[in-house]
Structure formats: C-alpha cells, structure tokens
C-alpha cells in the first residue's frame, strides 16, 4: 500500500514539473527523503521527491504523503549538495515554513519563517550567513515582539560556515546551514500586548548607551547607561506604581553609591536590598537542613528499594504567596506528595530586586537517599 501511494506521488510530481522545458529522461531523477531531509533509499523514505535539471541547476521538489508540497529547492550540482537559488520549506497543509535564498550553500538576501498556523515568525536579511540590518519577530498570535538591528552589510567581510560531519554518508540537505547574529544598532522589544518592554542599542552584541525598561502596565521599570555591556553611571529603578525605589551609581557594573526610597517615594537612606531570593519563614537557620528534618520518608516505601530526588518548581509572588507548585521529577509519587505537602505549608518572604518585592520562580531538589 505504501509503495502504491508513493507511485501516485511520483506521478503527481511528474505532472507538477511537466510545465518545465522538454527534458530528456536523464534530466529528471526520482529521489527519496527521510524525516531529517536526508536523501535516502526507497525502503527508508518518508517523503517522495523529484530532481529536475533546469539549465545549469537542479530543482528538487518533494511532497508530504498527502501530496501537499514539502520542499522546493535549487541545487548547483547533480549530487544535490550545493544549495544555490530559492529554497522554500513548507509545514503540512501548504503552509510555508521557511523562505530563503542560497548562493553556493551560503544564505544571502531576504529570509522569512512562519509558525505552523501560518503566522509569520521572523523576517530579515542575510549576508554571508550573517543576519544583517533590521529583523522583525512576531509571536504566534501575530503580535510584534522585537525589532532588532544587526550589523550592516558593509561591516560583514567574512563568510560564516558550520562544520559538517564528514562521516555522514547521507547528510541532511540542511547540514552546514548556519546563522550568525551580531547585534549592532537599535533594539526594541515588546510585551504580547504591544506595550514597549525595553529599548536601547547594541554595539557588537554588547549593550551600549542609554537603555530603558518598562513594566507591562506602561510604567518605567528602570533606565540607565551601558558601556560595552556593563552598567555605568547613574541608574534609576521604579516600582510598578511609577514611584522610584532606588537611585544607583555604577562603575564597571558594580554599585558604587546607593539611594533608597520608600513606597511613597521618600528618601529612606543608603542601605536597602538590591537582590534577594524568596525566603521561607520559620524558626530555623539552615533551610536545607530544615527540609531534611521535616520531610519524612513515606511509610508505604519503608522497605522499598526506591531512592532519588524530588525536583519541584514553584513561584513566590511579590505578595509572598506560593503559586504554581509542580513536580518536575520524582522517584515515586508518594515522595512527591510528601514534598508538596511540606512546601504548601510554608510561609514566604518575597524576592527583592532594587528595593522592590518581585515574583520569582524557583527550583528545588529534595533528596531521598538512605
């Protein structure tokens, strides 16, 4: 049944390319692709394909089992190892996945990619496999999430190449494909709502000059300057209400002076926490020891040869509430239940960032070893 199906696919491919110029039989060759887009044999194939000579190039067309288009790509050589020309890859149901252009296996020119729902994901320009100029990024809902500027084409003097394993007998047609991005210029990032999240500039991948950061509600979160990626000079930090929380002076990324402000914006001194993780409250000095002393081995597993670590993830809100507690890994569900019960009973002090309570997600491993 599988081969009858692919016989139909080859017939459809033949029909699809019949619009090309008259060709000799040797100018069209059946090909087979696996799910890594490596050329393979008929027995191991996942996708049917056809290679057709077009003047001094070869066009490869491949389809999904339902006969919808999977790939259209031009190659310079008959062995189909040098991508040269338009390259278009599709998601199922004729939805574009990638649209690029290659010259001698090097990405050059306009590039676009799409999500499986058909929404555009990225759009930009390549020079010698380097991202160049302005690039735009969207989320799956179609909201613009970033506008980033990469180095101009005039500054790209080399070709970025990826190493390909020479021992691979049938490398993927994507083998050797690489992408290098050197941020140089303005940068804008957005919240899913469209509200600006941060803005500034880069110089050779390092933040440079004045940067501004915002909360999702539109209030300023912080602002200050970078020099070669390090905080330098005066920085101001604000609460979500818009009230200043600290004024800090930096010298080579280190705080040299500090002014603290209370929730009403009044100066409160020169000492306040800048970075502090959430802390469990209780009459103990060592939290790790407190955990080991108060989480007991499940009685049902007293004689079972089961050991390991229960790994959990949780968030402490800025109000000090534990939320989103979940188990990431556990040797046994009873051990996980014991850990969950213990953590749910704890009281917390929230994390602090620049004299402001913040929500923070944590991971913790509880050992169960005899």
- The coarse overall form would be flat
Structural class: mainly beta
Helicity level: under 10%
Distance between the termini: 56 Å
Question: What's the total helix number?
Answer: 3
pLDDT average, as an integer?
Answer: 92
CATH level-3 fold name of the largest domain: Outer Surface Protein A, domain 3
Low-confidence segments, ≥5 residues, pLDDT <50? 1-5, 15-25
- Assess the beta-strand content as a share of residues: over 45%
Tell me the number of structural domains: 3
State the CATH class of the largest domain.
Answer: Alpha Beta
Number of strands: 28
CATH architecture of the largest domain: Alpha-Beta Complex
- From the structure provided, what is the oligomeric state, counting identical versus distinct chains? single chain
Largest β-sheet summary: 20 strands, antiparallel
Evaluate the radius of gyration: 29 Å
Describe the structure.
With 370 residues, the chain is mainly β. It has 3 domains: 30-132, no CATH class; 156-272, Outer Surface Protein A, domain 3, CATH 3.90.930; 279-368, 2-Layer Sandwich (Fusion Protein Consisting Of Minor Coat Protein, Glycine Rich Linker, Tola, And A His Tag, Chain: A, Domain 2). The protein is built from 3 helices and 28 strands. A hairpin with a 7-residue loop joins strand 4 (69-75) and strand 5. The longest helix has 15 residues, at 2-16. The protein is flat. The two termini are 56 Å apart. 21% of the residues are buried. Residues 1-23 form the signal peptide. InterPro entries: MORN_2, TonB_C. Pfam families: MORN_2, TonB_C. This is TonB C-terminal domain-containing protein. Keywords: Signal.
């Amino acid at each position: 049944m599988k081969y009858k199906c692919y016989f139909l696919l080859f017939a459809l491919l033949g029909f699809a390319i019949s619009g090309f110029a008259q060709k000799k039989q040797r100018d069209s060759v059946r090909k087979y692709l696996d799910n890594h887009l490596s050329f393979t044999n008929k027995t191991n194939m996942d996708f049917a394909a056809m290679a057709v000579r077009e003047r001094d190039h070869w066009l490869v067309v491949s389809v999904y089992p339902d006969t919808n288009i999977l790939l259209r790509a031009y190659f310079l050589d008959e062995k189909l190892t040098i991508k040269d020309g338009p390259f278009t890859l599709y998601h199922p149901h004729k939805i574009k996945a990638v649209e690029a252009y290659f010259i001698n296996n090097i990405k050059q020119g306009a590039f676009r990619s799409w999500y499986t729902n058909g929404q555009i994901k990225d759009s930009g320009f390549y020079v010698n496999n380097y991202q160049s100029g302005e690039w735009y990024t969207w989320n799956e809902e179609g909201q613009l999430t970033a506008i980033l500027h990469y180095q101009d084409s005039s500054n790209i003097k080399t070709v970025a190449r990826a190493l390909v394993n020479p021992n691979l007998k049938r490398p993927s047609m994507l083998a050797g494909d690489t992408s290098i991005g050197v941020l140089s210029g303005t940068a804008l990032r957005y919240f899913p709502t469209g509200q600006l999240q941060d803005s500034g500039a880069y110089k050779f991948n390092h933040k440079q000059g004045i940067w501004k950061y915002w909360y999702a509600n539109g209030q300023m979160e912080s602002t200050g300057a970078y020099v070669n990626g390090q905080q330098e000079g005066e920085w101001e930090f604000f609460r979500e209400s818009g009230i200043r929380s600290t004024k800090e002076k930096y010298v080579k990324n280190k705080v040299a002076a500090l002014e603290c402000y209370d929730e009403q914006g009044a100066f409160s001194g020169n000492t306040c926490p800048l970075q502090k993780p959430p802390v469990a409250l209780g009459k103990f000095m060592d939290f790790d020891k407190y955990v080991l002393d108060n989480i007991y081995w499940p009685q049902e597993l007293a004689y079972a040869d089961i050991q390991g670590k229960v790994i959990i993830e949780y968030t402490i809100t800025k109000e000090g509430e534990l939320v989103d507690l979940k188990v990431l890994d556990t040797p046994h569900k009873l051990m996980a239940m014991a850990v969950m019960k213990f953590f749910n009973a704890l009281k917390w002090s929230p994390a602090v960032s620049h004299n402001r309570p913040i929500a923070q997600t944590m991971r913790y491993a509880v050992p169960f070893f005899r």
